[in-house]
Amino acid sequence: MNITSSHIEEHNKTVKDDHQESLDALAHQLNKRNIDINELVEQAGAFQVAIPSWALGAGGTRFGRFAMGGEPRSLEEKIEDVGLLHALNHSSGAISLHIPWDIPEDTAAVKELADKHNLVFDAVNSNTFQDQEDQEHSYKYGSLSHTKEEVREQAIEHNIEVIKYGKALGSKALTVWLADGSNFPGQQNFGKALRNTEESLHKIYDALPDDWQVLIEYKPYEPNFYSMVIPDWGTSFLLANKLGDQAKTLVDLGHHLPNTNIEQIVAILLMEGKLGGFHFNDSKYGDDDLTAGSLKPYQLFLIFNELIEGTDGPEELRNQIAWMIDASHNVKDPLEDLLQSVEAIQQAYVKALLIDRDKLKDVREENDPAGAQEVLQDAFQTDVRPLLTEARVRHQAAADPIQLYRALGVRKQLIEERGADSVATGL
Ligand code: LRH
Ligand code: MN
Asked: Region labeled Disordered — which residues (predicted)?
């Protein structure tokens, strides 16, 4: 299923006048604040979010999984689906692979296919939280932290193999998330488990190419429900500092206990030069992996406020951090969900760019909390959608990606091509 430039042109023609009207209104509004809308359109257009290869099919829970139909059956079909998203919004120009769910059998052919869709490969993810058929040692009781050296060695080898795949595809980072932990008090020696993990990570770190990073992802619980070896940002930060400059922390928005101030964590990691990347999603209770910005758009905005506050300009910000989604779709069409996530992330980014930083600095110096809220609200309550639409139109993408996706009946066509019960590897 290909979305052609004439599909896009036809669609953009139908919304042209309405779009121009709302864009002019926003440009006028921003002009009064001495903000050049074209500068923001540029920044929005340049902001790319990587799509997780494991979130292109229907997810599920232990209570059930409801097939979506037309799910990608291979890595090649996954790349086509991400290519389709990128054709629609011109902001999904990267794919993050998970190994062994997405082993590139022929890396040259896979890279060529990705090039054809204007896609690059973001961080590659290792998987030592599931046992593969031909695996010698089980990860039931952990991997890099395991009490048995042979299990740790097996997990280290897997991570080094994942780096090899990533190198062949042009990726520049390895994401390590460990399910390692315990379900019951007394089950694990916390200190030993962390020390084992640190030693194992050192061996992986030594295998990193010089221009690579290792991103250490933390999570407070699940699949272990009493303790996780890397439960919080502090432990990930500790390990990243012990490993070296190429080790950073990855912040998955769903990996925080309720009401955690994630924007403060982001501010500190950024200040310490240890913020490596994000897994964007949203949640109400646990690691729900819901559409980014669908429940807490203000938190997403506040996170971008800290990101812009802590870096010298949009360019530096964009280039030093891995921007990735991590989601699981139980009821929504995965492609629509991902389009909405990218839109919400871009809205938070552009709204944060609208914050009057000088005014914010002044009201903070004057200890004027109400004044500070007014500055943030002016930006957050600005409807930036016409600006994002314009960024897409200027890059020959769809003014309204979901509208065009539905008008073309993409899901229906994918079901005709791939069948109603095709299942994608992943979560
Ligand atoms: C763990 C996690 C991690 C991935 C997995 C797919 O919850 O967020 O990033 O490896 O989801
Ligand atoms: Mn994640």
From this structure: 1-20
Q: How far is CA 67 from CA 73, 240, 336, 415, in A?
A: 13, 39, 15, 11
* CB of 117 shorter than 6 A to ligand 1: no
The alpha carbon of 252 and the centre of ligand 2 are apart by a number of angstroms equal to 5
* Structural domain contains residue 5: no
pLDDT exceeds cutoff 80 at 1: no
pLDDT classification of 425: cutoffs 50, 70, 90: confident
Within a domain: 359: no
DSSP E strands in 137-205: the ranges are 173-177, 181-182
Alpha carbons 41 and 163: distance in angstroms, whole number: 35
| Residue span of the structural domain in which 233 resides | 48-353
Residue 404 lies in a domain: no
Q: What are the tens digits of pLDDT across the range 287-339?
A: 999 999 999 999 999 999 999 999 988 888 888 999 999 999 999 999 999 99
- Collapsed DSSP state (helix, strand, coil) of residue 88: helix
The predicted-structure confidence for 253-277, as pLDDT tens digits, reads as follows 999 999 999 999 999 999 999 999 9
* Ligand 1 atom nearest 54 alpha carbon: 6
Strand runs (DSSP E) across 266-397, as ranges?
275-280, 322-325
Asked if residue 358 belongs to a domain, the reply is: no
Cα–Cα distance, 345 to 73 (Å, whole number): 28
State the DSSP string of 359-386.
HHHHHHHTT-HHHHHHHHHHHHTS--HH
- Number of domains within the chain: 1
What's the pTM value of the predicted model, to 2 decimals?
A: 0.97
CATH of the domain at 218: 3.20.20.150
